[in-house]
Prior knowledge:
alpha/beta; Udp-n-acetylmuramoylalanyl-d-glutamate--2,6- Diaminopimelate Ligase, Chain: A, domain 1; UDP-N-acetylmuramoyl-L-alanine:D-glutamate ligase; 17 helices; about 20% strand
Amino acid sequence: MKAKELFKKINQCELGEFAEIDIKKIASDSREVTEDxxxxxxxxxxxxxxxxxxxxxxxxxxxxxCEEKPTAKATEVLFxxxxxxxxxxxxxxxxxxxxxxxxxxxxxxxxTNGKTTVATLLYDLFRYFGYKVGLVSTVCNYxxxxxxxTEQTTPDPLTLNKLLGRMADEGCKYAFMEVSSHAAxxxxxxxxxxAGGIFTxxxxxxxxxxxxxxxxxxxxxxxFDALPKSAFALTNIDDKNGEVMTQNSKATVKxxxxxxxxxxxxxxxxxxxxGMILEINExxxxxxxxxxxxxxxxxxxxxxxxxxGKRPQDVLIGISTLxxxxxxxxxxxxPSGFTAIVDYAHTPDALVxxxxxxxxxxxxxxxxxxxVGAGGNRDKGKRPLMAKVSADLSDKVIITSDNPRLEExxxxxxxxxxxxxxxxxxxxxxxxxxxxxxxxxCSIAKSGDVILIAGKGHExxxxxxxxxxxxxxxxxxxxxxxxMV
Length: 485
């Protein structure tokens, strides 16, 4: 691609004699620079790319995008000065990979909980309708049926646009994407044009990064502020922040709720461990999900599908075929008659949602045993809150390790136990080894009981001192059940 074509959407950019240079790569890491590479210097959380401009030039970069030009300027190199390198690399990446969101309809899903479920169910639903569809999610990325492994909820701009470009080239009509608060704040989605945005909910999370709930909200809200007039913004008004999210959006705002008058309304008619019957906009549908939080997720899916032009009756039929996302309320029945549920819930609010869903089905029959931990090197403030929620809504609690990362597992457990009073401690055990904690829960569960194993869900590893060891909650449960036969 010629430089003049690559930079066509960058305002007030004078390329001069560099306009006809062939560009074969964009890089923000100087180690990846070769000749014909545009190097974009980005100020990161830990590293400032401006310190590596000389290195990029040594390796052959002829065009340098930066927020601050070096004092000693190299000859035969063009410095493109921009106010925000993060935003610029997104715009350049989108152009470089063929402006994919001009060829497919991209829908972003943001919120503390439910992003993965809503995005994945929309992907499944539109494949059911017969379309080629892309998915960008925490669990896995997909180009129609092709699996593309993922490491971040929302990839960096270069990875994201390369992925979207492949989706467009391979004929995908729609793409559904989780938009994390980090991605919005770091402008990883800059340059992409969204056909719609969905807000699920907002509760405390990622305080280690954002510093306050207000900053966390602002990051999420910036996604809706940037939606174009042609897009829709679908928001959950059961959440107190639902209307705040869309108050400055240029997009067409639509609402969904389980409680209030809105555009898309639902209520739970019947619920059991095999699923629930919902009434959505006065039409009943049988689903393979349980819990109010999943009713809300399915309502978001219904609303988005309708806003994308699908007939309501067709959407309901499609919803009846959907099943749970990996690691989200995965239910396994033991030979001795108790149920184990593996769920990704790793915030206080997510734990409340899952535990309340279990209570709704049990109706006082059987006990709830919760196995839960908290991640290391993350928001410490939520640790005692997670233990407290677990104790309030469970009959027995086993506090254990999640992904301790670079922290001592026992120190994390101690932080969690600090949230419990003496009476709550009487029904609480602490077992550092997560496998042993799951085994203990299974050994004390009786027929009719439910074990919730929370925090890791779809993850098949445990991060200990920077090393990822194979660890799969569901796999361990199956092994335990196998020994019961």
